[in-house]
User: Fold this.
Amino acid sequence: MNKKCGRQTVRIDNVKIKTAAAIVGEKEGQGPLAQYFDIVLPNNEWNEKTWEKTESKMQREAIRLAVQKARLSLADMDRIFSGDLLNQCIGAGFGLRDLEIPFYGIYGACSTMIEGISLASMLIDGGFAQRAAAATSSHFCTAERQYRTPLEYGGQRTPNSQWTVTGAAAAVLETDAEPGDIAVTHLTAGKIVDMGIKDANNMGGAMAPAAYDTIKAHFSELNMKPSDYDMIITGDLGKVGSEILTELLAQDGIDISPNYKDCGCLIYDPEEQDVHAGASGCGCIGTVLCGYFLDKMRKGEIKKLLAVGTGALLSPTSSLQGESVPGIAHAVSLEVKTGGEKQ
Assistant:
């Protein structure tokens, strides 16, 4: 059966998000969404010797918790898709090495959670697995150490910079979506979009054109409009990137502003917490989706949601070589399934 709905979009027929878990750091636990997270760390170390080990622990425990919520064992998981921002995805590789789950390491920068959900959904819908997990993580201190300067340096952050979320998220997906379940209905894969931005601090500006390209393709290929969704969310465009996104879409006659939110603008209190342009990091959309928005869907407050993960595909090496910052965005359509409808 052909499930292609266009060049970038596919239909998913019988996959649900069974459970999810979200773990965040101390700063995130002081923000407005604190009550929606499963665990809030007491400090940046969480009894580990390095920040990198802490990040691996967060990811491992998020998966354990999501599986436990599903009343399953780790042995029940057919596959896991996971990644992070660290070199060679060591957060996932070292964090999950003892779980004995068949593992696919993935990298989509801050879009990794949505990429993982997409791949897990296609695997299950294709009959290659009954259930699979998607997970990701980021940590403010590990990201600063890798991408910018040592924390001890105390460098001044630019106004358009964003604060990397300390957090990890995991979702368990499986077949046989029933009424009341949060079903995955469509996936839109993004293309790499590079507008030549070379300011590594301006990630929102670099990612916004990719989000625009993916969202436009999603609506076009499915013959939909923004009002068909109760909520449209992006990962971590922050204040700068989300404004650019809405302007780009508005130029094409697509107005998402009435039902659009950016996770990077939600997880922190901009008045009380100094995060400049907002939040970023793999853990941004991961924790906000798995903690806050899925809770809203389970309560019936949101019935149909489009989640767009956004990523900046840069590295310290590419920045030192004077390269630009390419962007990527992947979209997942989620819907609370009712009885009798066809997806």
User: Anything to note?
Assistant: The first strand starts at residue 9 and ends at 24. Helices lie at 51-69, 90-95, 112-125, 140-147, 203-222, 238-251, 282-298, 316-320. The mean pLDDT is 93. The domain at 182-336 is CATH 3.40.47.40 (Peroxisomal Thiolase; Chain A, domain 1).
